[in-house]
Amino acid sequence: MKTEFSLTQLADPDIAEADKILRACVHCGFCTATCPTYVLLGDELDSPRGRIYLIKEMLEKDRPPTAEVVKHIDRCLSCLACMTTCPSGVNYMHLVDQARVRIERDYSRPLAERALRALLALVLPRPGLFRAGMIMARLGRPFAALLPTPKTTSGTPTLRRRIKAMLALAPDRLPAPGPAAGSVFPAIGTQRGRVALLQGCAQQVLAPRINQAAINVLTRHGIEVVLVRDEQCCGALTHHLGRDGDALARARANVSVWQREAEQGGLDAILVTTSGCGTVIKDYGFMLREDREFAGPAAQISALAKDITEYLAGIELAPSSQQGDVTIAYHSACSLQHGQKITHVPKELLSKNGFVVKDVPESHLCCGSAGTYNILQPDIASRLRDRKIANIATVKPDMIAAGNIGCMVQIAGGTSVPVVHTIELLDWATGGPRPGLSGSGLN
Ligand code: SF4
Ligand code: SF4
């Protein structure tokens, strides 16, 4: 694609990067076929190629984005299916990230929308606030049911619709908090390695059992696990809201504490059980590339970051449970399959450890969770969830496995089949408790 940035514009490293990405696009349109919003809405401007044109216009003309541009960029899930499909290697992720930052900086959203986005950016990355928010949401849910669901005419959901969606995501009960930051879990038997385990923010409130399962499997196989003190939210949530100041501050803080831990105790890897976070941590090196102090350390941290399944693939697990023929529908989280290109490893681990693993039809399509997307774009998110659940139902699973808490909550909201994390199944297969026993959904 031909671009027309001025030399002054190209002196800005972000614009130079955007120029490189835009020039790689040959506007073939292959990406449209796998884009969930194009598949649902059929509008070229809700396809990757359409959005690329909108972003190009916005950056080249260097003018504030219009409401129309914002609408189509906001509808993008950042699922990155387009990057998997693109034959030209267009890095759509870095382009749309830049567009979101521009929108956040130059576009004035309606007051109520600004307030909601500010609330999400404040609450979601802080487990204490998030826990309090979940309790309040649960109390507020009966009142939300009384609110009428307004029809949207502009294509942008109303605040009331978004609040209803947010309250609907609150679980009926919250589990007790997991282990505290600073905890160290020694290897059982001969120590073979030492890793940090990302504590996460929403996940540690909604399902601390996931990291507990990871700790069980790792220590059982000779790996010491540390929950690094002073670690923060990885920044993914605010990064996807276009709030890069917040996201970069969190990235720098995490790079510092993980670097300190690596120097003091040694780290073979920084393990992540939430693939949405893993994709962003693996991108810290890029996000901080212009930071003289942090560019090098951030690249080292990104190289150390691994999804839990990626790390376990290098270890011979010792199955000990006879769980029988349990059929698992494996839901491939977008951040894992498109963001990190991890597709076969989780399924192979499950099969090798005794599970019957079924692929879900249309597995490339997002479930609609996508960070805060299911709150900010609830109608599209619900349609994607229903489509995902219908596809999952065709393989008649006993359980659904995924590697990302966002997907787990989203899918559990529409099915009675237990939704578990891949690591919980591997824990079960190697001597841990059976997951998904407490009934339906995520609980
Ligand atoms: S598939 Fe790649 S090259 Fe083709 S239009 Fe989409 S982004 Fe551009
Ligand atoms: S990231 Fe997903 S929703 Fe956004 S343009 Fe690409 S395929 Fe479509």
SSE diagram, text form:
Blueprint: H1 7-10, H2 13-24, H3 36-41, H4 48-61, H5 67-74, H6 81-85, H7 92-106, H8 111-123, H9 127-146, H10 159-168, E1 184-185, E2 193-197, H11 202-206, H12 209-220, E3 223-226, H13 236-240, H14 244-265, E4 269-272, H15 275-281, H16 284-287, H17 295-304, E5 305-307, H18 308-312, E6 327-330, H19 334-339, H20 345-352, E7 356-359, H21 373-376, H22 378-393, E8 399-402, H23 405-412, E9 419-421, H24 422-429
Parallel strand pairs: 2-3, 2-4, 4-5, 6-7, 6-8, 8-9
Antiparallel strand pairs: 1-3
Helix pairs in contact: 2-7, 4-7, 9-10, 12-24
The structure holds iron/sulfur cluster (2 copies).
One iron/sulfur cluster is lined by residues 35-37, 48, 51, 76-82, 92.
